[in-house]
Amino acid sequence: MKPRYFAGIVLTIISVISCVGPQPDEVLLPRTEISLTIKGEVIMELDPATCQIAYNSDKNEFRLVKDNISDWLIFRSNATPTNAGQEVRASLEYTSQSSTKTLTDLAFTVEKTAPDGTTWLWNKDKKIGIIIKVLQ
After folding, report:
1. Taking a C-beta distance cutoff of 8 angstroms, is the pair 60, 117 a contact?
2. Distance CA 79, CA 59 (A)
3. Max alpha carbon distance in the chain (Å)?
4. Which 8-state DSSP code applies to residue 4?
5. What one-character DSSP code corresponds to residue 81?
6. How far is the CA of 136 from the CAs of 57, 65, 93, 118, in angstroms?
7. Which pTM value belongs to this model?
8. For residue 111, what are the CA distances in angstroms to 7, 13, 68, 70, 122?
9. Is 93 helix (H, G, I), strand (E, B) or coil?
10. What are residue 30's phi and psi, to 5 degrees?
11. Which of 34, 65, 88, 90 could pair covalently with 72 via S-S, beta carbons 3.0-4.6 A apart?
12. pLDDT at residue number 15
């Protein structure tokens, strides 16, 4: 095999691997805090001293809000995420610097749950990880 063909093959493999992006076992599952992560970047996370969380079971809606209401996230799903492997459809609204972002009709897979209601969800298309707490 000629060196330039070998180099081309290696570059192609590296390009394909780098396009995969962050995976849940890298950026979501190691986390323990209630948070929102997009493409490996933490957008918002719970600071108990300055944030509040709420869960409305009738609407399947989770909220994380800073006390001064400068930042928030709202996760609304079509079903209560309770079991690993379960897929839910959801919308996500969150603040990012000085704007509000809204994403709709996202498919999230429940990656992991804990007895206290903490739930790790992953959207593979947009590489969105969110940890919520289903409050009873």
Report:
1. no
2. 9
3. 64
4. H
5. -
6. 8, 19, 23, 11
7. 0.82
8. 38, 28, 31, 29, 7
9. strand
10. -70, -20
11. 65
12. 45
